From TrEMBL:
Gene3D superfamilies cross-referenced by the UniProt entry: 3.40.50.11220, CobE/GbiG C-terminal domain
Official protein name in the record: Cobalamin biosynthesis protein CbiG
Cobalamin synthesis G N-terminal domain sequence ranges: 37-114
Organism name: Neptuniibacter caesariensis
InterPro entries xrefs: CbiG_hydrolase, CbiG_N, CobE/GbiG_C, CobE/GbiG_C_sf, GbiG_N_sf
Signal sequence extent: none
Length: 260
């Protein structure tokens, strides 16, 4: 469950607006404050506080465990200008969540963990039945981007397994979207097996890897940066196609990018 916790009228007004977009529970001036908030946290609820950061840290400090178990926590100022992922940035997904919330509010995300100063490179992996039409592939890709909170401009490439090197729909899609189309062989894609969200024995028997879309997305992301990739969006599928999105980080941005 997502809970938005506010302490002032201004915070409540912002919380009402955000709650409607996130299907969240708005909690205004919970009493007793520490007991209620700590209970939400220990229950694993995803928390958004619209108040001062110090209040949140002093309240949650007694119940913090570690970044692998604690739920994500965001802090937003009353004007809705800044969104801070305070706890469980990477492992708990607070960084990505902060990006999503900041887009909803047209706010500035303030990412302070190490990878917040790195440039994410996003790669799309796709698989499909032979002859899958471009319209179905494009709709699936756009649905995936929407779910991941990404734009087409952020995608570096579209990729698949090498037996799809001549797949007309994928080639047409990449050309239409002005993205490179890359394919990889099963030995290359097999390197990504430990990072897959699911493994399909059927796909393995058919093409030699446990998942085309996720493997291709992950492998491409790694090739772009040389760094360890991660899935941003686990594979989604239609009756004829699959799509997944992965990313890796390319390196430190220049100072102007960090300041902006």
């Amino acid at each position: 469950m997502i809970r938005i916790i506010t302490l002032t009228e201004a915070g409540k007004n912002l919380g009402v607006r955000l709650a409607s977009k996130l299907d969240a529970d708005l909690v205004y001036k919970p009493q007793p404050f520490a007991e209620q908030v700590q209970g939400f946290f220990k229950n694993g609820d995803r928390l958004i506080f619209i108040c001062a950061t110090g209040i949140v840290m002093r309240t949650l400090a007694p119940v913090l465990q570690d970044k692998y178990q604690d739920p994500p926590v965001l802090v937003i100022d009353e004007q809705g200008k800044f969104v801070i992922p305070l706890l469980s940035g990477h492992e708990g997904g607070a960084n990505n969540w902060a990006l999503e919330v900041s887009r909803l509010l047209d706010a500035q995300p303030v990412i302070t963990t190490a990878n917040g100063y790195l440039n994410p490179i996003y790669s799309v992996g796709m698989g499909c039945e032979r002859g899958c039409p471009i319209d179905e592939l494009e709709k699936l890709l756009m649905d995936c981007l929407q779910q991941a909170g990404l734009t087409l401009d952020q995608v570096s490439s579209i990729s698949s397994i090498d037996i799809k090197a001549d797949e007309v729909g994928l080639i047409q899609l990449a050309k239409k979207l002005n993205k490179p189309y890359q394919t990889w062989d099963r030995h290359q894609l097999a390197e990504m097996e430990p990072l897959l969200s699911t493994r399909s024995d059927y796909v393995f028997k058919t093409v030699g890897v446990y998942g085309v879309a996720e493997s291709a997305a992950l492998y491409s992301a790694k090739q772009h940066t040389g760094q360890q990739p991660e899935l941003v969006l686990n594979k989604l599928k239609t009756t004829k196609a699959t799509c997944a999105i992965a990313r890796s980080y390319s390196g430190v941005r220049d100072a102007s990018s960090i300041e902006n």
